[in-house]
Each structure stands twice: as C-alpha cells, then as structure tokens.
Amino acid sequence: MTDRFLAVLNKLATWKVIIVLAVLFLAFDFLVLPAMASPGGETLPVLDLKFWYTPARAYEAISQYSPEARQFSVISHLTIDLVYPVIYALLLSLLLVVVFRAAPESQKRQLPLLPWRAALADVLENLGLVAMFSIFPAQFPLLSWITTIFTALKWLQIGFTFLALLIGLLLLVLKKRKPGV
Fold first, then answer.
1. Domain assignment present for 43
2. pLDDT tens for residues 111-157?
3. Range of 91's domain?
4. Closest to 55 measured CA to CA, from 162, 128, 3
5. Is 33 inside any structural domain?
6. Helix (H) / strand (E) containing 55
C-alpha cells in the first residue's frame, strides 16, 4: 500500500501540480481559514493554531463562542478543515519528493509520509474539537487532553516536514556548488 501511495506521489510531483496546490494552500490560508476564525465578524480564539492548551484554556476559549459560532465551528471542522489537511499534506509531500529525488531509497520512502502524519493528527484534532464544541457547556478534560495531544503532534510533524525540506534544499544547493558535480 505504501509503495503504491509513494508511486502516485512520484507521478504527481510535477511543478504544475505543485503550483496548483500552492495556490489552493494560499487561498485557504488567506481567505478561507480567516473567515472560519471569525464567524459573523467575531474574532475568536482558534485552538487549532495553538501548539498546546490545557482543558481549562480550551473550554475558556470555547466559552467565548456564541451558540451560532460554535455550530459554525463544528460545520467548518467537518468540511473545510478536513479538506485543508489533504491540500497541505499533498503539497508538502510533493515538495519533499521533488527535493529528495536523488536521495537514497530509504529517505525517499519515509520523508514524503511526514506531512500525511500531520494531516492525520489534524483530522483527529478536528474530530476532538467537533466533540468539544458540540457538547459544550459539558466538559470532558480527557477529551481536551487527547485533542491537544493531536494538535501538538500535528505541529511537530509540520515542523519536521519543514526541517526536512530545509535540509533537502541546503543539500541541493551544496551539491550544485560543488565543482565537478
């Protein structure tokens, strides 16, 4: 299964596809997600953007949402915020494939999977947030802890992905600068 998935990523790893995904990513970042963060013009705390939060902070943030804003957040997390992880994971995966094309097979197998681990954590985080927003004012601290763990795992995997991209780009630059190569 992993081999087929990596083969698909290798076929998709063209600059045309990467540019389309980059445009979609930027549209989400600058248009869609800001609208999600301010339903009805309200500026509300967004738990997805934090690295870590306690149950007290999570429920304090959720308490600032009106019932309508909570409902909007539930719908957004079940629709828009399930598409976004696929877009960023695919974009980052394809960039890793391109940057590490000449790398040893072991690196080519594992690195493009990093963004998908982030996307999985993001989806699980979204499901936790949906549950928290849906049952509010009831509070389940264990649910909040599990959700914040997925949030932190998402950000860690995204950080590792960007670190891998940076290292890959530096290696490419160094390889091109080497005389006779």
1. no
2. 999 999 999 999 999 999 999 999 999 999 999 999 999 999 999 99
3. 2-27+52-170
4. 128
5. no
6. helix 55-63
